[in-house]
Structure to design on (1821 residues):
């Protein structure tokens, strides 16, 4: 019996042998490093058993009863305690002792064995209570595992006294909110969770990854290394899943194992047999019999699982379709249909028997054989699709990008040294990578599998095949020290050429253009995401040999995943968030290959999906296939077919989505509520899809929109933070799939560490090239607007209301700091109250009576428009951006026009006159900075009353004293308005109504801005004897309409200090906090500067230190504490005098901080290269930026210019 | 079964080709009109450039009979009983050939005017109605008596006509607008003739920008009339093509009962134009409205019930909006759908055709036959099949090798290489002439639109463009490909377009009498010299190819000099002057002739001026 079942196992193994040998993951580690308790035996099972025994002996104390050296105690609960906020400290936090009693002598801590792992638990408290949870984790040796936590709402978590999680926002109770590595030391470890319920009942969630923690956790990596064969691996997977080795009693291991096997049978018939065996006395032999039976059971079970949902109808539809579409090239269609019917008939009794759990009546052999036949028939019928079997398929072998921060950040490039290593260079790893080609015969068998190029320590990505099918472009990084560059080679792997050069930059995503150029995304325009510190690439273009690299994109943030549309345009994903939430702002956009006509294609105005990636037009159709993902996810997600003619957001345009149940995550744009948690909904659908490639007959376009190659996860998908078991994280093994709209998903090929970017090799349609209209001799372009009153909501604005368009640049973020501030999004460095971006007004242009406008704007600047009325008050703002290329004349219909409509045929008056030149806003275009642009108005008119120590100052303090991050008036105005925008078209106005990082939906006119701000009404009406000049009034109005910015630049001179803006160092601030907290006699909550600012206003004055509100926490002004605190604040004042901040008038907002200076030099190098390329194009020459052997070309160019 | 049919089809094509080679002698056939005999299951095809009409037996798909020496056949009409076939012969001195189908003999011709087209037979079979394109009128002809019963003037270049089942009304598509081009509302119209009253009872103006009307038909239930045309967005600068920035391609729907325009629906998709809509035919069961796209070589099959259902729901929304029930009236009323590029999603199938230049179409049951003008082929589409992959070639009419001129003509009409297929050269230059519209090209700045010029003699009269900005016409051809079609094209293609333009021949003026100047025109010829016209517009090209300021420049072009256009065929290229402000020659010489700088008519009286105009329009 043993022999037979082994044979089955072997057969089944080959049946599933699509999983090839893990070439990349079996690096040999010298065995001398193995721990002494590791005892390698002939089989992995014996190895595990013996090593566990050895471990117990090794860690057990001599003479003591053996006990499991890995132990996790139940949770203990203390509280709830009434609390005001998360920061408030209670006894359990000060003194962690399970025997602590309260004033009435009751124990504070209670054991809660019902709080089991991997489940959501409600806690006993109410709103405004704090609850503590504690448990002990004992391990024999140091190990790092991952903890997955959730706390509703505010959550602090400590491991052995060190805080590992801090989150202080209201949130629902969902699994997996926070992740943290648990660096367990040998022996006892203490895990303490603190949960503050801000709204409603508190709750929590906890899970260990990989779960559960046991002795085996320490042994699996060694055993997996030593028994890499697929049979052993299969068995290990089964036993791991069933936890065979985890929950042993250790009193009698053989019995324990036997019990565990017995409990893990899947099929009742086998379970019965097992029970028979188990009646015998436990021994190694009976254990072996039991184990073999267990494997048989699992094999039958798995075989059943692989076929029980077999969809005969889907397969029939696909065969039928192929037969219709390819009568001659798919000749066996009719035969397949009848074979399918035969198999279906044969399957019925098997299906019925298995459903009835009468598998004992089935012949195990023939069952497995049948399923094998069925699956290979399916494979044959689908692969003989001429679109699959007529040409080889190219694909990338690489690992998934590492645990990181969003789908844009996949480069981990040089020059990006992050603290902590999330997404920076430190996170780079590689298990090697390759560009492979596979081909199938009509039987579905692999007839060719060859490697075109393979590198052991680097990464290959993003291939694109030339139109004639003879060359392939890709991006490659040879190792960590290298940078991603674009390479090209013949499709047979010969004639490898490096096309791009340079260090501390990344060139990825190359595509061929019909005019012979190559487009790609690159970090050659140094910029970072505003809500974090990750570098962002834009789109560039170069000649076929790598010459003359010029930027064609240049958006606010990220542009990537370009693909060529059949009409010759570039379809790409773009991320930018002008005055809106960072999360839901990745849509599909189009541009001409010269960078002109940038316009929205699909998906920019709904909360979900938050990221739309990998867009490709399905040839011959108006459909696009793309990936719906989430902002904090890897570049994978749900795969879709989208018909944008049916709308630009929401569920209607999504014709098809895989997996189908993810459709419920889609959201229509009418929901403007501020629901940012939705941005990550697309984290959850499984399986994961990436790099869809639509198949269609290259000549006739037959079958377009029906069949796709795609990279898809095979088997289990772990959360993208779950990477503890392997140093090289592989979150899901990705294989190449053939999927169709009929419901078939066939795994074509899989190999470690994963397969990506499948695409057919061969000739493909070459679109007609679009002539370039860019003229690099110019530095500006033109924009015309047909009718500002045309478009969503603007029809409601009375004609003639709009008198000006304001052109505002949203400058890119070229610097970041290690410290920052956070309200809804992280701000490294701190920038504004609750929005991350800065602004620079370019100027105003007139709008004609008929709503038309025609004006020039500087080229290559990311700008947005605001519609202003006669008082230059904003009526509507774009909350997105656009740009023109040099010499471009771009047109748009109206404000937020309907992108599915042709422009109305209408004569408009702005075109009857020359283009308007933007009228500068009180001086040349510059970064808008609150202190220099707005505060002087308050200083002139308001601070006479609205100042410290004055009655009006208590109502509203408009003093200009710089504080820790912002100044007094800025914080006071904001905290007396609202943390974030909410819809209120009528009713009482807030002091100022700004959008902050608002919702993604297009909002109606007058939804925010000066028209909705009480401050403007008061000043216009006349407040006391204050009379503002037109300019002063406009300064306040404009500031509100620009979304109330504070800093103009991202260069932070106090990068290493708290919030990257504080003149006080961390040490100074800590010292001050200690002084304040120790002199806290009135039970005030602990000092938390951000919280205090939100509640009470600015806490510091670095002009008049004695005015600092923080000092009011000390009652006795003559006390030593007071004097010390004042001294520290005064030191801050002096520091600001020595090193002024950007909000000190006259301060140059230039890079001063060392890292900023270095980055700035890098930026200037890149700018110079771009300039040289543009000049070369004008001169009809070639320049190869940063290419070592072609510098002469640059030189000759320079000489020419001289 | 399928296989057998396929073999038969293949055999018939092969057979036909062999026969065809011997009989066609290498000339182009150019199928321009199709009509079907449902009783006898036959198809008749007129070949514009072959002087031929053929009949095809649809049972075996073979040509049964050919009638040669039918001069420039342009349209076909069949007696309901299949007894007689009428063929309009589109010559300056036109005629209607009449063929007795019982014996295949040609009978004596019926009379016709200049370039007769689109013959229609009255329900009782007694009368034939024809459009005389360049006489701008419709003739009612008594077939028996071979007599013209009435000549009813319509607006401009009637090219297509349809009639309701009662025979009461004729609906006539006027090819071009008759307005001054700078008026801000320029559109061609459909004229409705009350047949018993022999008068036009309405001119139904299409939306602003409607030009190049080509096809018209009435629904089988007589409720709606469909007309195909280009809807030019000529008021916008020509900065881009996408979203129909320049040309959209439209189907206008006229309510036959109320005699009002009901809606204009765009045939394009958001990212893909459907250029140069031409023939329109309803399926006999009323289920489909089919349109050929001569520029993109495809056919649209519109589901008629769904179309009207959607239009009616929009209409109701619009009405609700008017009453304030709906918050957002954006794009809701029937007329406003004329900008909606996604309106036909789910309602229409775009069916690719195998050949080039589908211009004619006919239905039998669920089968559509399409004449592919440039391929010299007839394609067939089974309209009801679930998902037609595309049309299949049914019949080849010639296998003549393409010469450069024909190739150039094909490129000129082809929108398939234009960015997103929105238009071809012919979209603004129908029949290589002009669409009657002003366009704001970027070659001379923006905000100064210019009237489209006819390209006749353009190669012989450099420079090109009214501003003369292109010193060589060849440059203008290449600029057109680059800046108007947004396409990088090989030089060889442009060269064939040059060759085609070179080969163009003028059409004799309808003002000539039997090919000669009328008496008035002869008098006018003297005044032509006397008024100084001849000095800048000298024979034989009627231009000296120089630029002059004739006092017409206004706004940014005040005191501007313009290229002197040739006056050959000036009778068909209204409106006049660089911005098309003059709808008629009268206005050029009188209304807009400031200080007599543009022709000294000071010494001429009204009658003499009329003579002068008669002469100019005779050129």
């Amino acid at each position: 019996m043993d022999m037979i079942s082994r044979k089955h196992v072997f057969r089944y193994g080959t049946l599933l042998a699509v999983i090839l040998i893990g070439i990349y993951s079996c690096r040999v580690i010298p065995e001398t490093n193995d721990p002494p308790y590791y005892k390698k035996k002939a089989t992995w099972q014996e190895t595990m058993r013996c090593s566990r025994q050895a471990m117990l002996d090794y860690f057990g104390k001599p003479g003591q009863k053996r006990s499991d050296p890995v132990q996790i105690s139940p949770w203990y609960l203390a509280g709830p305690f009434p609390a005001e906020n998360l920061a408030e400290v209670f006894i359990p936090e000060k003194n962690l002792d399970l025997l602590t009693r309260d004033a009435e002598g009751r124990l504070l801590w209670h054991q809660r064995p019902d709080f089991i792992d991997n489940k959501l638990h409600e806690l006993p408290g109410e709103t405004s209570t704090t609850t503590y949870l504690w448990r002990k984790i004992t391990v024999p040796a140091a190990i790092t595992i991952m903890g997955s936590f959730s706390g509703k709402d505010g959550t602090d978590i400590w491991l052995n006294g060190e805080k590992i999680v801090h989150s202080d926002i209201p949130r629902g109770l969902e699994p997996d909110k926070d992740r943290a590595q648990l660096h367990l030391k040998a022996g006892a470890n203490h895990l303490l969770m603190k949960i503050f319920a801000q709204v409603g009942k508190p709750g929590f969630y906890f899970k260990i990854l990989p779960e559960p923690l046991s002795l085996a956790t320490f042994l699996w990596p060694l055993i997996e290394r030593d028994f890499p064969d697929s049979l052993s691996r299969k068995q290990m997977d089964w036993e791991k899943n069933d936890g065979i080795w985890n929950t042993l009693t250790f009193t009698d291991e053989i019995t324990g194992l036997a019990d565990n096997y017995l409990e893990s049978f899947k099929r009742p018939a086998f379970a019965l047999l097992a029970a028979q065996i188990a009646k015998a006395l436990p021994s190694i032999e009976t254990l072996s019999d039991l184990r073999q039976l267990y494997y048989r059971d699992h094999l039958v079970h798995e075989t059943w699982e692989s076929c029980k949902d077999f969809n005969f109808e889907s397969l029939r539809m696909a065969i039928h379709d192929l037969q219709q579409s390819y009568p001659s090239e798919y000749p066996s269609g009719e035969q397949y249909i009848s074979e399918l019917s035969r198999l279906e008939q044969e399957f019925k009794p098997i299906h019925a028997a298995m459903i009835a759990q009468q598998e004992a009546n089935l012949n195990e052999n023939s069952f497995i054989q049948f399923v094998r036949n069925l699956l290979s028939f399916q494979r044959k019928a689908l692969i003989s699709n001429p679109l699959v079997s007529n040409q080889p398929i190219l694909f990338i072998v690489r690992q998934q990008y590492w645990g990181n921060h969003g789908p844009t950040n996949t480069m981990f490039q040089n020059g990006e040294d992050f603290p902590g290593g999330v997404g920076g260079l430190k996170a780079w790893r590689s298990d090697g990578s390759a560009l492979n080609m596979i081909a199938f015969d009509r039987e579905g068998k692999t007839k060719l599998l060859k490697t075109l190029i393979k590198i052991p320590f680097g990464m290959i990505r993003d291939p694109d095949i030339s139109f004639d099918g003879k060359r392939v472009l890709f991006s490659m990084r040879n190792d960590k020290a290298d940078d991603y560059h674009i390479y090209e080679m013949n499709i047979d792997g010969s004639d490898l050429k490096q096309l791009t050069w340079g260090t501390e930059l990344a060139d990825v995503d190359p595509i061929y253009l019909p005019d012979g150029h190559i487009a790609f995304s690159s970090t050659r325009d140094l910029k970072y995401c505003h809500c974090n510190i990750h570098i962002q690439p834009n789109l560039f273009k170069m000649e076929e040999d790598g010459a003359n690299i010029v930027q064609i994109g240049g958006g606010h943030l990220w542009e990537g995943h370009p693909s060529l549309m059949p009409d010759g345009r570039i379809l790409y994903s773009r991320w930018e968030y002008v005055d809106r939430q960072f999360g839901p702002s990745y849509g599909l956009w189009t541009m001409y290959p010269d960078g002109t006509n940038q316009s929205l294609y699909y998906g920019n105005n709904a909360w979900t999906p938050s990221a739309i990636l990998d867009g490709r037009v399905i040839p011959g159709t108006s459909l696009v296939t793309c990936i719906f993902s989430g902002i904090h996810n890897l570049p994978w997600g749900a795969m879709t077919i989208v018909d944008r003619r049916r709308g630009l957001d929401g569920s209607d345009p999504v014709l098809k989505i895989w997996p189908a149940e993810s459709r419920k995550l889609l959201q229509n744009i009418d929901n403007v509520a501020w629901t940012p948690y939705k941005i990550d909904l697309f984290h959850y659908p499984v399986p994961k899809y990436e790099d869809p490639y639509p198949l269609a007959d290259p000549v006739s376009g037959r079958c377009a929109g029906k069949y796709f190659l795609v990279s898809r996860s095979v088997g289990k998908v772990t959360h993208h933070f779950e990477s503890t078991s392997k140093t090289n994280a592989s979150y899901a093994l990705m294989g190449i799939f053939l999927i169709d709209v009929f419901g078939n998903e066939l795994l074509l090929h899989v190999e470690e560490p994963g397969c990506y970017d499948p695409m057919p090799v061969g000739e493909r349609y070459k679109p007609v090239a679009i002539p370039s209209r860019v003229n690099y001799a110019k530095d500006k372009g033109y924009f015309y607007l047909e009718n500002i009153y045309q478009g969503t909501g603007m029809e409601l604005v009375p004609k003639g209301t709009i008198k000006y368009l304001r052109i505002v640049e949203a400058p890119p973020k070229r610097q970041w700091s290690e410290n920052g501030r956070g309200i809804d999004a992280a701000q490294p460095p701190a920038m504004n109250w609750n929005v991350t971006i800065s602004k620079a007004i370019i100027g105003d242009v007139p709008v004609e009576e008929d709503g038309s406008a025609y004006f020039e704007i500087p080229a290559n600047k990311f700008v947005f428009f605001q519609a202003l009325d006669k008082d230059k008050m904003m009526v509507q703002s774009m909350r997105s951006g656009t740009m023109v290329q040099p010499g471009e004349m771009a047109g748009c219909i109206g404000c937020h026009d309907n992108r599915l409509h042709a422009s109305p045929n209408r004569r408009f008056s702005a075109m009857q006159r020359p283009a308007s030149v933007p009228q500068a806003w009180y001086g040349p275009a510059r970064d808008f900075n609150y202190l220099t642009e707005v505060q002087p108005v308050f200083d002139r008119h308001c601070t006479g009353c609205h100042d410290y120590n004055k009655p009006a100052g208590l109502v509203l303090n408009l003093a200009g004293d710089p504080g820790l991050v912002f100044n007094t008036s800025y914080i006071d105005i904001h905290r007396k308005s609202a943390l974030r925008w909410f819809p209120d078209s009528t009713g009482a106005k807030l002091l100022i109504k700004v959008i902050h990082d608002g919702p993604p939906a297009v909002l109606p006119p007058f939804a925010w801005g000066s028209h909705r701000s009480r401050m403007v009404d008061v000043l216009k009406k006349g407040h006391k004897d204050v009379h503002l000049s037109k300019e002063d009034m406009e300064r306040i109005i404009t500031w509100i309409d620009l979304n109330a910015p504070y800093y103009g630049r991202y260069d932070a001179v106090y990068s290493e200090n708290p919030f990257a803006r504080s003149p006080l160092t961390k040490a100074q601030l800590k010292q001050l906090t200690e002084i304040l907290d120790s002199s806290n006699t009135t039970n005030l909550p602990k000092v938390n500067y951000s919280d205090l600012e939100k509640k009470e206003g600015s806490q510091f004055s670095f002009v008049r230190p004695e005015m600092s509100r923080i000092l009011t926490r000390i009652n006795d002004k003559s006390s030593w504490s007071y004097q010390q605190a004042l001294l520290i604040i005064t030191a801050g004042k002096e520091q600001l005098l020595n090193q002024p901040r950007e909000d000190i008038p006259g301060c140059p907002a230039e890079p001063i901080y060392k890292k900023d200076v270095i980055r700035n030099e890098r930026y200037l190098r890149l700018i110079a290269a771009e300039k040289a390329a543009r000049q070369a194009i004008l001169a009809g020459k070639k320049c190869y930026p940063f290419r070592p052997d072609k510098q002469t070309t640059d030189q000759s160019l320079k000489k020419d210019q001289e | 079964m399928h296989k057998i049919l396929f073999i038969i089809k293949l055999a018939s094509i092969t057979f036909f080709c062999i026969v065809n080679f011997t009989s066609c002698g290498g000339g182009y056939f150019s199928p321009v009109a199709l009509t079907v005999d449902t009783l006898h299951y036959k198809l008749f095809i007129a070949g514009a450039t072959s002087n031929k009409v053929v009949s095809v037996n649809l049972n075996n798909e073979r040509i049964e009979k050919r009638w040669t020496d039918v001069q420039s056949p342009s349209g076909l009409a069949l007696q309901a009983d299949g007894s007689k076939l009428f063929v309009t012969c589109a010559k300056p001195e036109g005629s209607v050939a009449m063929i007795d189908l019982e014996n295949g003999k040609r009978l004596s011709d019926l009379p016709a005017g200049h370039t007769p087209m689109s013959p229609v037979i009255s329900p009782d079979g007694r009368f034939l109605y024809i459009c005389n394109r360049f006489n701008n009128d419709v003739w009612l002809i008594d077939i028996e008596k071979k007599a013209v019963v009435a000549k009813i003037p319509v607006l401009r270049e009637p090219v297509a006509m349809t009639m309701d089942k009662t025979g009461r009304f004729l609906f006539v598509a006027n090819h071009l607008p008759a307005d001054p081009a700078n008026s801000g509302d320029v559109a061609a119209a459909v004229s409705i003739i009350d047949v018993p009253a022999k008068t036009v009872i309405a001119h139904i103006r299409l939306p602003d920008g409607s030009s190049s009307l080509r096809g018209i038909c009435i629904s089988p239930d007589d409720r709606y009339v469909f007309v195909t045309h280009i809807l030019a967005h000529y008021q916008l600068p020509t900065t881009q093509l996408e979203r129909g920035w320049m040309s959209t391609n439209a189907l206008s729907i006229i309510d036959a009962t109320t005699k009002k325009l009901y809606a204009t629906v765009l045939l394009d998709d958001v990212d893909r134009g459907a250029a140069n809509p031409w023939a329109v035919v309803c399926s006999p069961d009323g289920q489909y409205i089919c349109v050929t796209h001569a520029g993109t070589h495809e056919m649209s099959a519109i589901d008629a019930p769904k179309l009207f259902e959607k239009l009616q729901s929009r209409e109701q929304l619009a009405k609700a909006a008017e009453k304030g029930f709906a918050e957002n009236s954006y794009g809701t009323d029937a007329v406003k759908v004329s900008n909606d590029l996604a309106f036909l999603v789910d309602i229409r199938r775009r069916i690719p055709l195998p050949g080039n230049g589908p211009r004619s179409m006919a239905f039998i049951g669920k089968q559509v036959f399409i004449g592919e003008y440039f391929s010299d082929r007839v394609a067939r589409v089974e309209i009801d099949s679930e998902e037609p992959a595309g049309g299949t070639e049914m019949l080849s009419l010639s296998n003549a090798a393409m010469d450069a001129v024909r190739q150039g003509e094909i490129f000129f009409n082809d929108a398939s290489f234009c960015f997103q297929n929105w238009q071809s050269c012919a979209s603004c230059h129908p029949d290589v002439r002009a669409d009657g519209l002003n366009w704001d090209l970027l070659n001379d700045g923006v905000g100064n639109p210019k009237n489209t010029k006819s390209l006749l003699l353009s190669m012989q009269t450099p420079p090109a463009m009214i501003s003369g900005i292109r010193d060589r016409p060849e440059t203008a051809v290449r600029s057109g490909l680059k800046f108007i079609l947004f396409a990088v094209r090989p030089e060889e293609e442009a060269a064939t377009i040059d060759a085609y333009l070179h080969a163009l021949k003028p059409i004799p003026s309808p003002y000539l009498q039997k090919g000669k100047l009328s008496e008035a025109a002869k008098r006018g010829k003297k005044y032509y010299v006397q008024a100084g016209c001849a000095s800048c517009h000298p024979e034989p090209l009627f231009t000296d190819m120089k630029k002059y300021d004739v006092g017409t420049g206004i706004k940014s072009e005040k005191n501007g000099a313009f290229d002197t256009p040739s006056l050959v065929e000036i009778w068909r290229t209204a409106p006049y002057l660089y911005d098309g402000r003059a709808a008629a020659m009268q206005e050029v010489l009188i209304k807009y002739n400031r200080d007599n700088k543009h022709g000294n008519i000071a010494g001429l009286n009204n009658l003499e001026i009329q003579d002068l105009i008669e002469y100019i329009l005779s050129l």
